[in-house]
Amino acid sequence: MSSAENDLYQEVVLEHKRAPRNFGHLEHPSHQAQGTNPSCGDRVAVELDIDGSTVRDIRFSGQGCAICMASTSMMTEAVKGQDVALAQELQKHFRAVLTGEEDPEEAPLGKLVSLAGVRQYPSRIKCALLGWHALMHAIAGNQEAASTEDGTGTAGGAA
Ligand code: ZN
């Protein structure tokens, strides 16, 4: 990757790791799911307050590597207050960029594009997708723990 892309990526990951957004719990979540990434040891739980078709509020908790925590933190920022359909679209594009199916410069990712650098590190892609994976499970109303190793894996059910 270019050094500018690398710098931005490092900076964003460290900043979110230091001060994760929307970290904690909701009092009465309408939807929730957990995600685990056994290959790295990341675990995150996502709690949502979905009102009609809008993600009114969101929190996440858990422990993981810097990329997992930063990506989940950025995910919560990106989807809070947005339509569920938009969250699903973002997940699709974010996954496609990280797996190399979509050019980051053409994907409508907003700030999330600063994590596009993760695609250079295949072993970390699951870390970056875990929070989104849990989000998709929560939206789908699947209360079971989502795992990056469970077959639906990084496909996030979007296949
Ligand atoms: Zn990780």
Which characteristics define this entry?
globular; alpha+beta; disordered C terminus; Sufe protein. Chain: A; 159 residues; 18% strand
Molecular structure report:
This protein has 159 residues and is an alpha+beta fold. It has one domain (3-147): Alpha-Beta Complex (Sufe protein. Chain: A), CATH 3.90.1010. The protein contains 4 helices and 4 strands; from the N terminus they run H-E-E-E-H-H-H-E. The chain has a 4-stranded mixed β-sheet with strand order 3-2-1-4, covered by helices on one side. Strand 2 and strand 3 form a beta hairpin. Helix 1 (3-18) packs across helix 2 (66-79), helix 2 packs parallel to helix 4 and helix 3 (84-98) runs antiparallel to helix 4. The longest helix is centred in the N-terminal third of the chain and has 16 residues, at 3-18. The chain is globular. The two termini are 28 Å apart. Mean pLDDT is 89; it is low at 152-159. Zinc ion binds at residues 37, 40, 42, 64-65, 67-68, 127.
List the helices and strands and how they pair.
Blueprint: H1 3-18, E1 31-37, E2 42-51, E3 54-63, H2 66-79, H3 84-98, H4 125-139, E4 146-147
